[in-house]
Design a protein that fits this description.
The protein is mostly beta strands. The protein folds into 2 domains: 176 residues, Immunoglobulin-like (Sandwich); 113 residues, no CATH class. Helices cover 12% and strands 39% of the residues. The strands form 4 sheets. Strands 2, 15, 16, 17, 18, 19, 20, 21 and 22 form a 9-stranded antiparallel beta sheet that branches.
Length: 301
């Protein structure tokens, strides 16, 4: 849709799929795959006949591998989705360390993008025309982002004043080495589902930037559905270079039932005996890379 109607809502869907719904299907070493990407897993339930399409760990290359090659092709084609051009406008749809060239005012223009996105908020773009040229650089402001900041050669530009269908459009005469800096604040957000999604009523998912997070048993213990995240709990993100190839991890205070009060009974009078815990959430795409275990995206709140 983007070539026909440059609207950031289409790129938002593309970005969410790329960071969450696609690469979650492949292990970090690229050797095993999920056929489906569930948002909740209990390994014992996966053994039931009606749940056998859901696996708790990725499977090795399939005998008839229809989907794994599609993931490989998608990753190999990422470069085609980062930029596009329409007339005198050069669009930046995705923020990825990269380089591209396009034609403007009858000459080659090179864009060099430097960033550690999606872990960091800052993106630096160097504009390098062969000689001075006037054109528009359209930078996507993601739908999840509030308070985006934009500078050209150190001079601040009010984003709302140049925003058109989710793109900050900067039209000017560009010179060799012009520097564009865009900052996309990434606080940890609680995401709610539409109330008609009944199984998610009273639950939230955690998201930072474009990345959706999940809880895993290896970090939080078993019976993840018992964990409850307070509406007022402070959530913090910190990059851990040693975990899962280097990821931003979300931590925060929550509560769960005190299991020591149960002696095998099926029911008993509610005493609301809870204990404080610290949750640790990792990017959903990286789950099931540390062995089999429970996984949960939607957390009680």
């Amino acid at each position: 849709m983007l070539p026909f109607d440059p609207d950031s809502k289409y790129a938002d869907v593309m970005e969410r799929a790329l960071y969450n719904g696609t690469i979650s299907g492949m292990s970090l070493d690229g050797k095993s795959f999920f056929y489906v990407n569930p948002l909740e897993v209990w390994p014992d339930a996966c053994k039931r006949p009606d749940k056998m399409h859901v696996e708790s760990v990725r499977q090795k290359w399939f005998g008839c591998a229809c989907c794994p090659p599609n993931i490989a092709r998608l990753i190999a084609s990422i470069g085609k989705y980062i930029y596009s051009q329409s007339g005198d406008k050069a669009y930046v749809h995705l923020y990825v360390g990269s380089e591209t060239q396009f034609q403007a005012s009858g000459q080659h223009v090179k864009l060099t993008q430097t960033t550690n996105y999606p872990w960091d908020e800052q993106i630096q773009i160097t504009v390098s025309p062969e000689r001075e040229a006037e054109f528009t650089l359209a930078l996507r402001v993601p739908g999840w982002c509030d308070g985006a900041q934009l500078k050209v050669n150190g001079q601040a530009i009010h984003v709302d004043a140049v925003l058109n269908k989710g793109y900050a459009e900067v039209k000017r005469v560009w010179s060799e080495g012009d520097q564009v800096e865009i900052v996309l604040p990434m606080p940890v957000e609680r995401i709610q589902a539409n109330p008609n999604v009944r199984v998610n009523a009273g639950k939230v998912a955690l998201q930072r930037g474009p990345v959706v997070y999940c809880l895993e048993e290896v970090d939080n213990g078993a019976i993840l559905q018992d964990i409850c995240l307070s509406h007022h709990a402070e959530l913090q993100a910190k990059f851990d270079p040693e975990l899962l190839g280097g990821v931003a991890v979300i931590t925060g205070d929550a509560v769960r039932s005190d299991h020591s009060n149960w002696q095998g009974e099926l029911y008993k009078k509610a005493k609301y005996s809870e204990m404080p815990v610290t949750i640790k959430a990792v990017p959903y795409y990286a789950w099931a890379n540390r062995g089999a275990g429970e996984m949960l995206v939607w957390i009680r709140s």
